[in-house]
Amino acid sequence: xxxxxxxxxxxxxxxxxxxxxxxxxxxxxxxxxxxxxxxxxxxxxxxxxxxxxxxxxxxxxxxxxxxxxxxxxxxxxxxxxxxxxxxxxxxxxxxxxxxxxxxxxxxxxxxxxxxxxxxxxxxxxxxxxxxxxxxxxxxxxxxxxxxxxxxxxxxxxx
Length: 158
Fold this sequence. Notes:
With 158 residues, the chain is an all-alpha fold. The chain is built from five helices and no strands. 64% of the residues lie in helices and 0% in strands.
């Protein structure tokens, strides 16, 4: 039957002897205070501005898409896909603030021109969301904005 022998070097013993007082000194020996902890003053959310700008940019694009869909009913099915995508993105970015009243671009009356303008606006919006992802302090917000940008760019390609 074998027994496990622990071989302790002189260095290990000296290290433990030197480190023990430091470890014990870090322990709190005083009982916890009965006074309630002070509540820190609420600071502004660092990403609130990033979310606000993203929501506004999406809302402006939605207004443009809705105006183009109203002016060109034949573009309706294509534009409805964009509207549903933007609705999902706005839902993710819902921060409880009231929606802003925004104006989109006014349709020219020429279907091909208006369709191209919408696609250009979608490209700009995708870039703005990617910029927001780079500016976000929160990793979750950065991933959400980057994902939104990627979803839009993917739709632009197809």
